[in-house]
Design brief:
637 residues; five-stranded parallel β-sheet; alpha/beta
């Protein structure tokens, strides 16, 4: 069965040609399909066992929810929509067994349709009932489990069903399309699984697939016509290309131009690089949005996940490490032992995964994202499965401050409960604040009226989402911009300038931000389909980095940018306060020993303008620097 091809036929054309024949096909699909193929082989004998007929484009009324499949559908054609949750490996299976009668040596061929090899009942020549299997013909096959998508089940528990794929449906190209995480439409025959025990009354069912359609477009599957290519190249030369894209990203949300510009660059992505030592420098751009309620974070995340092929949207309140990365489950009967189930980040490989309510994801689960965000892979070592899965996924995360609204005077670490090591992996972090402003409020009200109710055509040009997809796909495939010396010098000058502003304990920028600047500049060049990163691209990257650093890194007490405020570490001023409290404790230890009055420590610290003394003492206790000998008294370790 090598190089098996398929002949695809539009079912709607069969209905137009012969309605009665189409009805017969729906009620007896396997028998009818066999007749069709035999007729094809009569006209083209050389195609025998080399071509399979596959029908597509079935009417909507044939589509069923998995939970609606009943006994009346057994043996008939069904069309179901589902997300692949689990999948076995592709394995060869016997589809035709050749037997020899022991008595008269007659050769009998038996087509295998069951899970267990079926022997002939009796010999057609001598009526003998003893046979020896002397040959076999194989095809490749795999089992998958599909589950109803959440958006079509109206809050019910999703139902799942097993699907059997074989022959050309599991060739290398189709195998990728039926891996866990893909959403597919299966066209097949509903069958029952042979019972292990004849005394059991309940039947298990599965779908024997005749064809399937991938409902999610891959980057390489996006088709671009000659006319569309010309339109893409024309737009790339437009001096307002950035503004047109920014206006087309979530146009129903007013403003947020700098955030939309950053997300635009995230969608295009930087250039992945591999160093001579084998290390990888990622091209994915990660963005964190922190902000007040009702500022449009969730809506923005949802829109971007739908705009990107393979894009995924998850909410932190319902996400675990297994749901985000991968998990391992056991299924001995059909899938053969331990099976890997992919999570949202793996499913969104080479796309964007939008994670809302990011701060509500459990810390243990967030640890799983460390490798993914930096290395572009996810390592799994569970049960008998040891694997490294590709996860070159850009993370767009949204988080809410602990106390409802963002406080510009408090470090980000005090406002969202995310590990510092994970915060450092975000290239850009932005704050969305709901600050009353009569002018802006009036513009927002007008924007809502235009976009939702009164239908006034906006002056700005809005690009079609399908065209945006094709433009990004074209850029990702054909554009690999090289860094020019002028652009690199501008980025380096900005980095050195910021480093020179670092004073004493305050550091204004690190190499992580410099790497992010390079990625942003490369993405900016891709928007113009340019093969060179220019100074213009460098300036755009610097502009966005400045906004990010200023919003979250400004230290009001010192009047400078402190990168530790942005990255979630202790800020320079906070470290200074801890040093003051530590020196006070050391002084008092000489007087009181290990019975230092807590009130005296607080009193002396406040005299030196340290206001959050209780919080500092609690931190020092958690880190093992001090302990309480009895209530109200401190001892130093």
């Amino acid at each position: 069965m090598q190089d098996l091809k398929k002949l695809e036929i539009d079912f709607s054309k069969l209905q137009i040609f012969d309605v009665e024949l189409a009805e017969i096909f729906i009620n007896s699909p396997e028998e009818t399909l066999q007749i069709f193929e035999e007729a094809l082989y009569e006209f083209e004998p050389e195609l025998k066992d080399k071509v399979r007929i596959r029908f597509y484009n079935f009417p909507k009324q044939l589509e069923k929810r998995i939970g609606e499949l009943r006994s009346e559908h057994l043996g008939k054609l069904v069309v179901v929509d589902g997300i692949v949750k689990r999948a076995s490996e592709v394995r060869p299976e016997i589809y035709e067994a050749i037997f020899q009668c022991i008595e008269c040596k007659n050769i009998i061929s038996v087509i295998q349709t069951e899970r267990v090899i079926k022997k002939p009942i009796k010999c057609s020549r001598c009526d003998g009932r003893s046979f020896e299997m002397i040959g076999e013909r194989l095809y490749d096959a795999r089992w998958i489990v599909i589950e109803e998508p959440y958006e079509i089940i109206s809050g019910e528990r999703p139902t799942s069903i097993m699907v059997y794929l074989k022959e050309d449906l599991v060739d290398p190209k189709n195998r990728i399309k039926t891996d866990p995480g893909n959403r597919i439409k299966v066209i097949g025959v509903l069958k029952r699984i042979p019972r292990k025990s004849k005394s059991l009354r309940t039947l298990e069912i599965f779908i024997d697939a005749l064809n399937f359609e991938n409902l999610e477009t891959e980057w390489h599957d996006i088709e671009i016509t000659k006319e569309e290519e010309e339109k893409i190249l024309e737009l790339s030369k437009d001096p307002n290309v950035y503004e047109k894209f920014i206006n087309s990203i979530a146009p129903s949300i007013y403003g947020l131009e700098h955030i939309k510009e950053a997300i635009l660059l995230q969608m295009f992505g930087g250039s992945e690089m591999f160093m001579p030592d084998g290390s990888r420098i990622r091209g994915e751009i990660h963005i964190l949005l922190v902000g007040d309620p009702s500022t449009g974070k969730s809506q923005l995340l949802k829109v971007i996940s739908q705009l990107m092929p393979r894009g995924k949207y998850v909410s932190g309140t319902a996400s675990t490490a297994a749901g985000l990365i991968a998990t391992v489950t056991r299924d001995e009967e059909f899938l053969g032992g331990w099976v890997l189930e992919a999570g949202a980040v793996i499913m969104a490989n080479q796309s964007v995964c939008a994670i809302d309510e990011f701060e509500k994801v459990d810390k243990k689960d967030l640890i799983a994202l460390h490798e993914t965000m930096e290395q572009g892979s996810a390592s799994i070592a569970k049960a008998s499965i040891i694997a490294t899965l590709p996860a070159k996924t850009a993370i767009l995360a949204g988080a809410n401050p602990k106390y409802g609204r963002f406080d510009p005077y408090s470090p980000i670490k005090e406002q969202i409960d995310i590990p510092e090591t994970l915060l450092t992996r975000f290239d850009l972090k932005f704050v969305l604040r709901d600050v009353p402003d009569p002018n802006i409020d009036e513009k927002i009200i007008e924007h809502v009226a235009k976009t939702r109710f009164f239908g006034k055509k906006e002056n700005r040009e809005i690009l079609d989402p399908i065209f945006i997809r094709k433009y990004i796909a074209y850029a990702r495939k054909n554009c690999k911009p090289e860094m020019t010396e002028e652009a690199y010098k501008r980025l380096a000058d900005f980095y050195k300038e910021m480093r020179q502003k670092s004073t004493g304990q305050v550091i204004s920028i690190t190499m992580r931000q410099f790497e992010a600047l390079i990625r942003l500049a490369q993405a900016s060049a891709k928007v113009r389909l340019s093969d060179k990163v220019t100074i213009e691209d460098a300036e755009r990257a610097i502009k966005l980095m400045k906004i990010s650093l200023t919003q979250l890194g400004f230290e009001p007490e010192l009047g400078v940018i402190d990168i530790d405020r942005v990255e979630g570490s202790l800020s320079a001023s906070q470290r200074g306060k801890i040093r003051i409290v530590r020196s006070i404790i050391e002084e008092l230890q000489k007087i009181f020993g290990n019975m230092i009055p807590e009130e005296e420590v607080i009193k002396r610290a406040k005299e030196q303008n340290v206001d959050n003394v209780e919080e500092i003492l609690n931190k020092m206790k958690l880190e093992g620097e001090i302990y309480y000998t009895k209530p109200g008294y401190i001892g130093k370790i």
